Amino acid sequence: MTGAPTLAVWKFASCDGCQLTLLDCEDELLAIADRVDIAHFTEASSRSQPGPYDVSLVEGSVTTAADAERIRRVRAMSRTLVTIGACASAGGVQALRNFADVREFASVVYARPDYISALATSTPVAAHVDVDFELRGCPVDRRQLLEVLTALLAGRKPNIPAHSVCFECKQRAVVCVAVARGTPCLGPVTHAGCGALCPAHQRGCYGCFGPAETPNAGAQAGLLRAAGLSEADVLRAYRTFNAGAPAFIELSRVTDGPPPGSGPRDLPERGDQGD
Amino acid sequence: MHPRGDSVPQPPGDPVVVDADALAALFLALGGRGYTVVGPTVRDGAIVLAELASAAELPFGWGAETGAGRYRLRERSDTAAFGHSAGPQSWKSVLHPARARLWSADRAAGRVTAGEAAAPPRYALLGVRPCDMRAIGILDQVLTGGRQADPVYRGRRDGAFVVAVECTEPGATCFCASMGCGPGVESGFDLAMTELADAAGHRFVVRAGTPAGADVLADVPSRAADEAVIRRAGAAVDEAASRMGRGMPADGLADLLAGSRESPHWDDVAARCLTCGNCTMVCPTCFCTTTEDVTDLSGEHAERWRVWDSCYSLDFSYLHGGSVRTSGQSRYRQWISHKLSTWHDQFGSSGCVGCGRCIAWCPAGIDITQEVAALAGLRDAEKAAQEKAAQQKGQER
Questions:
Q1: For a designed S-S bond to B353, which of A8, A68, A244, B134 qualifies (C-beta 3.0 to 4.6 A apart)?
Q2: pLDDT by residue (tens digit) across A47-81?
Q3: Nearest CA of chain A to the CA of B19: how many Å?
Q4: Is the pLDDT of residue B218 over 70?
């Protein structure tokens, strides 16, 4: 590699929020431009250099046959491919179509549905090509995006933990909204990364960063039900930005579980085994 | 009134009475000596620990109701400032912070220079409950008891001024009495206070445990404590011991856990455990951390940070090739076994002080005392079955 490494940013089916997060790195943007040659980033500049590229950041999911082809070309041109955000990593909110009939949607929304050429499903980039790193979030977190870019430049592993949001609440001394207020919260099953943004404003976690490494469907369903959610509410809680994430699909199928504090099944007082 | 500027400080241990109004003078005395006061205050629906600018920020008239997976603020019928059981944080948050920079380095013209370590902050810990006094004692052993003292903890701990407040209001999730950690406190403090808020007024019986404590106390308006008020304070603490909402068996916990490695109970608890890590984060003695090496975009500046970690994260047990503890069963078992059993082997004491935080702040409400009871029940049942089988075998012969 001669000169500065080249960076390309690509958009697929998405809202552009993750690309905006990169532009939002105002204080660091000059430093980024110092270290890398931003070769293709149409949201920032109409100047586009041809590939290949050292790093490609891909936003958005694959929802058309044309994009299914295009993502292969992007992969072929990219030494390292990083997906940014819930769309590229899990299919995004548009993956709700995966649980319905997209032709029916099109017939309701568009005057000329025959103009619409869309696939029946919205799928993450990794369903089509190899991905080197998936950065979660809707949108991605600015600090995490910088961490991934910095780590790639330094040739080290990015510090992106896969544990629950609860770690972040406790690390920044946010009072647990589930325990202290009875607020429905997806924090215990959601991948960290946002810095506990919603709980820090006394709201439950909405699961923007998708599933944490080892979510427990039954225990989480019990927690949500105890907070007043119906079975349908529990399913809907997972059907948002990461609806297509396999772990969230699994979780959405479990709408009941042991309520908080239900205790051991085999307490001596309850059974006949005790002294 | 204790005369200000008395050249002979009170000998440690001689109790005095300090009116609640005089807490303002305590803040001034601590501030004047360069301490940042950290103590309880109401924020976001809980009594949290935070840096306090004045006594007015203390949670006067606030209490808490706790249960398994549940915590609610409640208004008290009196003005007590320390009439509440443990909140979501412990003093670990102050002495062993969630994030700490261990070192930094800069490279310029091929030369690497290390950054200067910042001077540790000096905190006055106001309102340390006896359970938490014990927890600090355990952290002392863990983090400074070995050959290599933890520099971050040591710096903060050595500079700290400790104001213990004995417990007169245990919660439903408390069991410090059964762990031998409270509700009274004997040592380890600079000042120890017992709060009384009744018809005779809102006041504290205060005793100094160190010359530094006596020195601060000399700056706080006080009067000699008579027999009656000392008895009342003692009775309030004794009475608290009988009002603990939960209890733990006094003996045999280490053996119980060591013998329960293959217990069928781990499946039961794993069905309820979110593996979210909350119990370890709120535990006042859970000390585990990970390190993060970070660089900046220029590649010329590097830092090493230490961050709280937990035996509930997969990365925590990641050795080459993968995580050692992938199941919820193995992770809960690791936590409770370390806390109640292998901690004895490693550090010579239990790792549990009976503060009850892990019960209240577990979103799933998993109760360490109930899990122990279930493990003991299964062990006893198995033992009884084995004895019965042995007896039958003996009879057959």
A1: B134
A2: 999 989 999 999 999 999 999 999 999 999 999 99
A3: 31
A4: yes
Pick the residue of A176, A224, A273 with the most B CBs within 10 A to test the interface with B by mutation: A176
- pLDDT per residue over A182-222, tens digit each? 999 999 999 999 999 999 999 999 999 999 999 999 999 99
Q: Are A125 and A148 in contact (CB under 8 A)?
A: no
Q: Which of B274, B297, B299 sits opposite A188 (nearest CB)?
A: B274
Partner-chain residue, chosen from B45, B98, B265, that has the shortest CB–CB distance to A266: B265
Taking the domains of chain B in order of start, what are their residue ranges?
A: 16-241, 253-385
Confidence of residue B299 (pLDDT cuts 50, 70, 90): confident
Domain edges within chain A: 6-154, 165-252
Closest to B76 in 3D by CA, of B198, B242, B175: B198
- CATH architecture assigned to A6-154: 3-Layer(aba) Sandwich (3.40)
CA distance A123 to A132: 17
* Nearest residue, CB atoms, B93 vs list A173, A202, A265: A173
Chain A residues with CB under 8 Å of B363 CB are: 166, 176, 178-179, 185, 187-188, 223, 260
Q: Which residues in chain B touch residue A164, judged by CB atoms under 8 angstroms apart?
A: 274-277
Distance CA A178, CA A160 (A): 25
What is the number of other CB atoms lying within 10 angstroms of the CB of residue B386? 10
